[in-house]
Request: fold
Amino acid sequence: MIISYFTPRDKYKTISLTGNWCALNCRFCSRRYLENMIHVNPKNFTHVTEELYKWGVRGLLLSGGFRQDGTLPIEPYLEKIRVVKEKLGLFISAHLGLITNKDLLIDLKEAIDVVDYEFTLSPFIVNEVRGFKFTPSRYVEALSRILDAGLHIVPHVFAWHPGLSRELLKKELETLEDHGVGEVTLLVYIDPAMRDYSVKLAEIVLNNIEYIRGIYHGKLYLGCMRPGYIKPLIDPLITEKKLVERIANPHYKVLREHPGEIYDACCSIPITMNTRRLFYIGVNNPEDHYVEDTHIVASFRHSTFTK
Reply:
C-alpha cells in the first residue's frame, strides 16, 4: 500500500460562511479557527469564489460557525453554491454539522461533493466540549439522514480525546460500518495541557490507530486535526507501518523518507479522473539519507519498536 499525502495550499481553500460568528464556544476552538478561514457572506460569496478561481483555486471546503443545534447556516448560500459549482467546475466539500432536514439535504446533494462529518458517541465531546444539551444519539440520526439523502459522507472519528475508551471507539466504528461507511478520517483532540506529555500521548494515539486498523475494514485517513507536537513522533511510524491510506499535512520528515502521491486538497476527496486533474501535484522524491534531528524522536521510535 502506497500512502497518499494531502496538503491543501493553493488549490483548495476553506471558507467560513459565518465570518467569525459561531453560537458555540467549544473547548478546543473558542472560535479561533474561524479567523484563518476566508470570510464570506451571501452577498459577496459569488464574487469571492470567482476571484479565488482566478487565482487557481479549484476546490472549496465550506465551513464556519454552528448554530446551537450544531448545524451550519448554509441555507442562504444554497443556490449560489450550485451556480458557482456549475459555472466554475469547483469541487466542494462541507462541514454541515448535524443537519437532519430531509429536503435541505436532498437539495445539498446537487451542490456538495463530500460531507466532512464529525462523528462521535462520546458524552465528553458532545456535552463537555461542544456544550450541547442533547445526547450523542443526535450524531447517529444526522449520519443516517445524510446517508439517506445520497450524499457522500466521510465521518471524522477521534483516535484520542480525554474521554475516549477502547469500548467507545469500537462502538463508534461498528456503528459506522453498520451504516455502510467505508472510509473514516481520524482526528486527535488538541489539548494544550498534553504538550508536556507528548511522548505518552503519541504512544496512546499510535496504539489506538493500530487498534482501529485491526477492527475497521474500510479505508483510514489521518486528518489535519492533530497536535503539531506529536506529528514528528507519530507520522513517520504510521507511514512505516502503513496504518492509513492517506495523511493530511504530513510532517516533513515523512515526505523525506516515503514516496507517495501528493494532492493539493482535503484528504476526504475521492480520487477520480476529475479530482486527479484538479489537485494532483506529483510524487515526492525522498532523500537517500534520513537522520533524526532530535533525541526525543529517536528515543520514541526505539521504545516503540522494541516493546
User: Anything to note?
Assistant: The chain has one domain: 4-305. The first helix runs from residue 45 to 54. Confidence is low (pLDDT under 50) at residues 288-300. The radius of gyration is 19 Å.
